[in-house]
Every structure is written in C-alpha cells, then in structure tokens.
Amino acid sequence: MPTLDALLASPYEIVGVVTQPDRPRGRGHKTSASPVKAAALAAGRRVLQPASMKDDRFLTELSGLRPDLGVVAAYGQILTDAVLAVPRLGMINVHASILPRYRGAAPVHRAVIGGETETGVTIMRVVKALDAGPMLSVRRRPIGVHETSEDVERDLAGIGARLLLETLPGLLDGSVREVPQHHADATYAPRLTKEDGLIDWAWPAERIHNLIRGLHPWPHAASFLGLQRLILHRSRPAPDPVSEQPGAIVEALGDRLLVATGLGGLDILEVQPEGKRPMSIREFLAGHPVAPLVRFRASP
Asked: What is the pLDDT of residues 99-109, one digit of tens each?
C-alpha cells in the first residue's frame, strides 16, 4: 500500500492498477475488495484483477493501457514474458531485501528467522528468473534484536515507497546505473507454512527467539505444554545459564516463564492458548498453573 499511495500522490500518471482477485476476508469470510483495489478505485484508476497472468483478456486490457513502465510490489504471482513485454520501459520491483540475498516470497520473515542484523529494500528490474534482475538502487536498514517481522516489514514498506520515487527520475531519463546481481551469493526465502512454526527445543535459545519474532504475525511459532498448544508471541534469551533438558520449565512464577533450550534459557513473555486471546505470562500462569516436570514439546 505505501508504494501505491506514493505513486498516486506523485506527479506520474498512473494508468492502471493490477491486483489479486477479490477473496473472502475476515471471520465471516465475505468477499470484499483488497485495500489496494479500494485505494485505486477511490483515486479513479482502472483496476485489473486477473486470476492468471496468462489470461488473454487481461493481456489485451493491459496492453490497451499503453504503460511506459510497470511497478511491482508484493504482488505474489510470477509474471510471464508476455506481461513483462507490455510496458515500453519494462517492469521494476520493490523487493524487501538486500539482493541477491533472500530472493522469494518471504524475504523479511526469513531474514528475521535467520538472525540477520540488517536488511533493506532493493529496486530491481524484473526478469523471468525469480528476483534475479539487475539492481537500480538499494537502501539498508538495521534489524533490532527484538523486532518482529511485522515491525520490520511495516518500516520497509515506507522505505521502499520513498526509494522508488527517488529512483524513477534516473530510470526515466536513462541516467540510473543497473548493477547485475552476483548470482552465486543468492539465497532463497520460500513462502511460509504453518510447519515453519514448529519449535525444536534442542535449538539454542537465540534461534528459537528469532523464529518466534520472525513468524509474527503469521503463522506464529507454537509448542505444546502438556496437551495444550500454545502460540508464542514474544520472548527473549535469558542471561542466566540453565542445565535442564531442552523444553524443561526452569521457572514458572509471577511474570516469568523460563524454558531450557539446547543452549541457554528462553524467557517466554507472551503466549496465546489455542482459541483464546494473547496474554502476558502473569495472566497465563494465573489461569493455567504449570505442573512439576511438565515440558514444552513439539507435539502433545
């Protein structure tokens, strides 16, 4: 959305907006327009919503707009050669990583899960290979040790929108330099699944902490305490050394739920029992006393 908002507020003429088809949303699963579609229609722009990039009608409508340049931001579909050939100056992408690292669908989440201390935005030319086109501009941003993917992604959206507008004049007048990527250094950021949230308590505390914050706000890291599945929202590696078996609860009192890991301990700060709201550890322990010798496990 920040990219579309920035373009709509810019002096450039936006001849059309391509977005995903309307889908069921919310608890009632009612079909409704996405925020992108709503913003485009409110601005009086033509909206195209193809179910497939290969749809002949879509290609005809897109060609009829006669765009000079296409801008892609978190679209979620692979663009075909026919689509890439429509704009006179090609297509560029606002990608949320410092390429060539973290090509793919979930670059922010995978960077946080991987414990990266820095990420950024790359404006790149779109080619048929996934996120492999030459780079036009890059802006870096540090990742805080307790930031979630949601925190980082929200900030990068604004950074990307601003960087795009700074890059466009040089692209349009031909002065921008296109820098090829070093493909040998490329890493892949695959789409997230619920299976990514399974915690192995034999991992070091820092790795589990990174998983918890990297999978927020979806699909979340989770573990079983007895028969109860808990979503883990917030954590921090504990400064104190622990010697218990991985998954063992070292302390469960007041505001503290300390769990042993393969290396060090992890303080769990906020949890959500399945089917209930997120709660602080004090709230959770008040209603869910932890029995002695109970351990966190990957399955009940």
From this structure: 999 999 999 99
